[in-house]
Amino acid sequence: MAKSNHQPLKNEPKTVRKLPKRKQEEHAKAFKLYMQGMTQREIAEILEVSEKTISAWAKDGNWETARAAQMFSEENLAQNNTAILVMYSNRQLDLMRERDKLLNLPKGTQQQQKENSDRVFAIQEELSRIADAVSKLKKDQSKQERHLDIITYLEVTKSIFKALQLEDPKLHAQTIDFQERHIQEMAKKLG
């Protein structure tokens, strides 16, 4: 019988560590495929296991949080939000210049005044929509930052548990159930 090459996944749940070696390897493959963006159904088909099994593994291992952490790194979010805010700011400046120019034009015919007034009104509406969009973006950014704070908290907690394992393996072994419960509870509470 061939020796298993399975390396436990980082922060692998205790229930996975109890799986037979063959299932541990399937689990590791499933996790990698999930992190690459595949759906649970696609993974189940590829590995020829039930979708229910993949779903249980994903829930037990908190795969959704892991994928979110990978997809929404702080650097990517910050760059995207900054680019969008710059775009909105530039558009606002252009619109305000156009509005100011229209407001400072000498009075022309009634038709010209009506056209200018209509355009100023349209500019004001667009400025209002941009302000709403910026407000929503900042609110979303705040939510994203909170999500990243949660991920950071979980990573720090796992790091502490890992340090405990290195420092006092016996005490670590006695706290495994607590560690798993705590991480799961905090992920639900903060997520």
Describe this structure in words.
- The chain is mostly helical.
- It has two domains: 14-69, no CATH class; 72-190.
- Helices cover 82% and strands 0% of the residues.
- The protein is built from nine helices and no strands.
- The protein has helices spanning 14-17, 21-35, 40-47, 51-61, 63-71, 74-103, 110-167, 169-174, 176-190.
- The radius of gyration is 27 Å and the shape is elongated.
- Residues 1-14 have low confidence and may be disordered.
In short:
With 191 residues, the chain is mainly alpha-helical. It is built from 9 helices and no strands.
Structural key phrases:
82% helix, 191 residues, disordered N terminus, mainly alpha, 0% strand
